[in-house]
Amino acid sequence: MKRFLSCLLVASLAVGCSGRSSSTSSSGNPSETSGERPSVAYVTNCVASFWVIAKAGVEKGGQEFDSDVEVLMPTEGITDQTRMIEDLITKGVDGIAITAIDPDNQIDLLNKAAQHTHLITHDSDAPGSDRECYIGMDNYLAGRLCGELVKEAMPEGGKVALFIGRMDQDNARRRRQGVIDAMLDRSEDASRMDPPDAAIVEGKWNIVGTYTDKTNFSAAKANVEDVMSRHPDIQGMVGLFAYNPPLILEALTQADKLGKIQVIAFDEADETLAGIQAGHVFGTVVQNPFEYGRQSVRVLAGLARGQSLEELGIPNSKFLNIPAEQIRKENVDQYWADLKKTLGQE
């Protein structure tokens, strides 16, 4: 976990502040007429290794699209994220990219931000808000990719537990449902919603529960320990936020159950990729947080300079899709090498 924790330390300090233009156009966006460098803020939902990769993409986008960028990572959930957005509105940045923690209850705040600056969402959408577009993946379909990995890892079915940060987020709800629907061989229906507080027993599967942790790492690990205590015959564990699989591995190691319980993952934490190499993780579904960050800067900088979504290559759906990918033992080495190259860690 040392490398994982060091990434978190880096991330918690990762707030790049820079100057912004002071001339304001009639639309309320300073750089639209001033010709100066747009100021772009990228707001995450927590501090995690996933966002360290996104931050690298934001910084690359700042260089590539001649923009001042800052990355903000809340440590205290929705309260901290709300304060950040209000501060950015006051500062008058040219654009904000946000992954909303609780989109249903943040509509007023998001719409307020959209009145003062260009607002887009990334990673997790807030479709009911006035955001201009969403950059990310289809989390329901990505969840189904993860569910297919579960089926490959456990062809006879069995007892499985799901672990995730929170269920308020749009991406979390859709991702979890995609996993369940694929495991149970259901048709595609992103509007379906199995109750998160109940076990699901269907066919050869027993999904004992969905365990949330509010992105508290101690709670996330405790959830794994609790499942092993309550369900000593548990056969599979699925970690759906980036930090969940490393904490599952840590708990299993300490309980001397590493390799005895199938682990299926989401995202590309170093511990997860190393676990695939070692045979302790069956596979993971990876996003492309680097491109989430880079594309967010590209789009917001373009909007601040007066370009339209169409000119920026955003479809009429207002969804810029950056597809997910399954990683197994046969392709993990190449994937990890490519990721390190992208991050300049060769």
TrEMBL record:
<feature type="compositionally biased region" description="Low complexity">
    <location>
        <begin position="18"/>
        <end position="33"/>
    </location>
</feature>
<dbReference type="InterPro" id="IPR050555">
    <property type="entry name" value="Bact_Solute-Bind_Prot2"/>
</dbReference>
<protein>
    <submittedName>
        <fullName>D-ribose-binding periplasmic protein</fullName>
    </submittedName>
</protein>
<comment type="similarity">
    <text>Belongs to the bacterial solute-binding protein 2 family.</text>
</comment>
<feature type="signal peptide">
    <location>
        <begin position="1"/>
        <end position="23"/>
    </location>
</feature>
<dbReference type="GO" id="GO:0030288">
    <property type="term" value="C:outer membrane-bounded periplasmic space"/>
</dbReference>
<dbReference type="Pfam" id="PF13407">
    <property type="entry name" value="Peripla_BP_4"/>
</dbReference>
<keyword id="KW-0732">Signal</keyword>
<dbReference type="InterPro" id="IPR028082">
    <property type="entry name" value="Peripla_BP_I"/>
</dbReference>
<feature type="region of interest" description="Disordered">
    <location>
        <begin position="18"/>
        <end position="38"/>
    </location>
</feature>
<feature type="domain" description="Periplasmic binding protein">
    <location>
        <begin position="49"/>
        <end position="307"/>
    </location>
</feature>
<dbReference type="GO" id="GO:0030246">
    <property type="term" value="F:carbohydrate binding"/>
</dbReference>
<dbReference type="InterPro" id="IPR025997">
    <property type="entry name" value="SBP_2_dom"/>
</dbReference>
